[in-house]
Design a protein that fits this description.
CATH class of one domain: Alpha Beta
CATH architecture of one domain: 2-Layer Sandwich
Number of helices: 3
Order of helices and strands: EHHEHE
CATH topology of one domain: Ribosomal Protein L30, Chain: A
Length: 118
């Protein structure tokens, strides 16, 4: 006596007898709580040698300030000893500091620029 085996030729997975999809897994999406990146201030420091015009030029060229705001920041640096040029994420702020220092070196000025947490 020959017995034939009934094989599933369908590409669908076999269903559970109760039709509820037993064996299937439900994955719930977990919402990620992302925090905004920390911000850092780029701060220029006053010195007695760097011309005010150069400071205004750097503020306009590297930080995209208009002439009025660049002049106000330069005067704050001159009178208070320091002034915030801009607030950025860490990588951008570090790059801005390096660009200021490189421009000052090329021009032969001792202008200092630092990074601080905002």
């Amino acid at each position: 006596m020959t017995r034939s085996l009934n094989s599933h030729a369908s590409s669908e997975p076999p269903q559970a007898p109760d039709g509820e999809g037993a064996g299937s897994v439900v994955v719930e999406k977990e919402e990620l709580q992302l925090e905004p990146p920390k911000l850092y201030q780029v701060v220029m420091l006053n010195d007695d040698f760097t011309p005010m015009e150069f400071v205004v030029y750097v503020l306009q060229d590297l930080f995209r300030h208009d002439i009025e705001s660049a002049t106000q920041i330069m005067l704050k640096i001159h009178h208070e000893g320091r002034g915030v040029c801009g607030v950025y994420t860490k990588d951008v702020a570090a790059t801005k500091v390096e660009l200021v220092l490189a421009a000052a070196r090329r021009a032969g000025h001792p202008l200092q620029c630092i990074l601080e947490t905002a």
